[in-house]
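Sample entry (352 residues):
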Amino acid sequence: MHLAKLKLTNFRNHKTFTAEFIGDITVIVGPNAAGKTNILEAIHYLATTKSFKAKYDRDIIKHTQDFARIEGRATIEEDDTKDLELYIAKNPNFDNASIKKAKINKVPKALQKFAGTFNSVLFSPEDVEILTGSPQARRKFLDMLLFQISTPYKKKHAEYVLAVKNRNKILEKIREFGRGWDELGFWNTKVVQNGLFIQEERDKLFEYLKISINKYGKELNDEKTNITINYLKSPISFDRLAQYKDREVASASTLVGPHRDDFEVSLNDFDIAEFGSRGQQRAAILALKFSELDYFVATAKTRPVLLLDDVFSELDDKHEQALQEIIGLQQTIITTTEKAKIKDQHFQIIEI
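Predicted structure, serialized as tokens:
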């Protein structure tokens, strides 16, 4: 997989930006606040149809503008080049809402079918929040990965989110007015059916990650290092919905299911988020990201474009060397503030 060209219009601080990517390794150089990370965000957005930074899609639109556009030309497989386009516009009728449209080769496509056409894996210093941040950050990591690999996952996830939202409205109506029980059964079925599918796909992912993250943990540290990842599932079933019925009515919210899932990463049986040093946390994230790359190869049979956002300043020599060895295996786009840090002058350099 290779991204040949990128064009941005009204994306973050970029009124316009165009770049052609030559060869396998590109380094984007520029001062802080020049918009380097925004370029990687746009590329990742093209893969997932979601921002890894913004809470709302409309946040990526340049201030004072009404829309943003991301266009890319990518070689998906040999002799299969696609022109990809995402258009994001502010919705004037609702606060924080937006309108998104996607095209492949100028033909309109549903977002669910667009996501995953092009694949990328992002690694940034902020990724340590996957370990130390909220469960929501960890669920977002899972979804960003699985959205690209499985179109059915993205479809079922969207249906699940809608079902939970509507179910919560019914629960609130029951709490406030004592009626709506007859409507609950329909949404129970939707929540359970879609939730089971989501958790089955997450089960497959974690079975792979358990082996891979431990392997990379030993390679990045030593044979005594034991990194484990544990899926903290909130099982969804009709029985559990019945079990939590009274509490759900009282809170007007669905208390079990994939939207309550979490996971934890441990180093030698200690929670690395709580007890790990900053260096150990960075090593664990590196192992997780290497595992993410491998999962693409194992399931999607392709190597995604690797996006590295100023990560070398955060790594020690050993971990930097491990990352250097991975860089050459697929197209890699790197950002940095210091051109002097670029050791290999054969890299393509883009200065902004």
